[in-house]
Amino acid sequence: MTVRITQDGLTTVVTIDRPHVRNAVDRATAQALADAFRGFEADPGSKVAVLTGAGSTFCAGADLRAIAGGEPNRLQPDGDAPMGPSRMVLSKPVIAAISGYAVAGGLELACWADLRVVESDAVLGVFCRRVGVPLIDGGTVRLPRIVGLGRALDLILTGREVHADEALRIGLADRVVPPGQALAAALELARQIAAFPPAAMLADRAGVYRGLDLDLAQALASEFQHGMPAVVEGAAGARRFVGEER
Prior knowledge:
The chain has helices at 27-42, 64-68, 105-112, 139-147, 149-158, 164-170, 182-194, 198-211, 216-227, 231-245, and strands at residues 3-8, 11-16, 48-53, 94-98, 101-103, 115-119, 123-125, 162-163, 175-177. By secondary structure, it is an alpha/beta fold. Strands 1-2-3-4-6-9 form a six-stranded mixed β-sheet, with helices on both faces. Strands 5-7-8 form a three-stranded mixed β-sheet. Helix 3 crosses helix 4 and helix 4 packs across helix 5. The model has no long low-confidence stretch (mean pLDDT 93).
């Protein structure tokens, strides 16, 4: 098994388990990752997922040794992506717990997640630049949306290392924690998110992503339309709040 799936309360933990190759993703592992997140999406008892890597590395990207040996990752334009789940649009949040290296396709998986919890000695970067491999798992799409156009181009064109302090400063990391603490911190964050009333939280999350591709008027209309079903939940919360105040 190259991908382990465990449950921590309402959180599904998906672990890339190939530490001998720094959790590089070959074709079978990409398939297993995609299947794991399809399972998470379909499970009503799981509210948040955490993606992490076994050992001391998040993910070093695609398995170049497997590719060089004639076993490339899936390269079709439809369906699962080369790294597995990076074309998926999920309805529930995913947190990346990053230790060691999150580089090349590993960085693309990290950017696919909603939030990134990064250990203070971790390194991120578009290292595939150094070997002439392009970003085809959403890196050119998501990285500019996360850190802005200029910073994304800096990372994409140079392939340089990004350490945790810079990642936090530019928005690539959402939390920085001591070495060895990324998974624990990500699980605690997942518990906080899972404890919120779900309808409004999921509607707001979906509204953020939908609005990225719309002009302001369309985005506001979409936000209202898709947020309205959660207003009932919000009204109940307001009544509870007023009752508690009294």
